[in-house]
Amino acid sequence: MIASVIGAFYYLRIVYYMYFGEDNEGLDTGLSPVLWTTAVVTATIVAVAWAPGINLFGIEPIAGAAAASLVN
To answer: Where are the domains of the chain?
Structure first.
């Protein structure tokens, strides 16, 4: 019960500041070039990895050998 009270204090404090707190400064909405590049590269790797029939980084033979070693 004490943990619930402490958690409620912290979460309700965020809600209080969202609606009733002072707006001291705006949000930084710009993305740095490093962050943008990382996001694009990560999204590309995920999209290619999820594509069926593509052997990304040669992992299929390794995964097949590992599965066969568990069965035998």
So the answer is: 2-71
- What does the block give as tokens for 12? 């309700």
User: pLDDT (tens digit, 9 = 90+) per residue, 10-48?
Assistant: 999 989 888 887 777 776 777 789 999 999 999 998 887
- Tokens matching residue 28: 């930084």
Inter-CA distances, 64 with 51, 57, 70, Å: 18, 14, 10
CA 52 to CA 13: how far, in whole Å?
46
State the DSSP H helix or E strand holding residue 35, giving kind and residue range, or none if neither. helix 33-50
8 A C-beta contact, residue 49 and residue 56 = yes
User: Amino acid identity of 28?
Assistant: D
- Residue 51 tokens read as 């594509």
